[in-house]
Amino acid sequence: MALPGFTDIRCGTLQNHPSVGFVELARPLKFNAFNAAMWREFPAAVRAVEAIASVRAVLVFAEGRHFCTGIDIEFLKDTFLPFAQPPASRSEGLHDNGSSSGSRPGPNTPAPTPACPGLARESMRRGILGMQDAYSALERCRWPVIAAIHGAAMHLALTAQTVSAGEALRLGLVSRVVEGSGQEAVRSAGVALAAQMAAKPSLALLGTKRVLLHASKAAERPRAKM
User: 114 by DSSP, 3-state: which?
Assistant: First the structure.
């Protein structure tokens, strides 16, 4: 069942699975690039699906060959270009002889409209807020979300799936799988790895570990509000 009120997004519940909500990017001719309507509709669609009483998980997919190719160029031009351009370029127009600006305007050329930095800033502010709202919509959804942006850790945590050693290696959960069986094979591989590390310069080992630990802790800290 699809919910009404959306143009470039489809959303609702799957027909045979009422506990599964869906949000579909439906702009295939533009490769599902996000325009102004999609930035508005995507977070609204996620919230609408989340509010359906039967929903316990949300699936995000797209119509056409491409899931999403990013931000629509026209949206970027309309939202940010007016603010980025200097006032002179915003007031340029065509002269009565059909040539572009660069010489004096002809007698029939209308006076250039003065630039309005306040409106340009407000347009850019609304655009940025809309993008932030869309980016965080899936994160704020209380139910599990299955989408291309989530990796193996999210998938395994929400499904409690058991994986083989080979699958763990493919997903990047481990760096190496030891050939053979038994504790002795694993112990021997561990000794070889430790010996390889121990042969490196001690200063490099200490410094590298400290940098990695610092980066890990920094990623866990809450980001300061801008």
Answer: coil
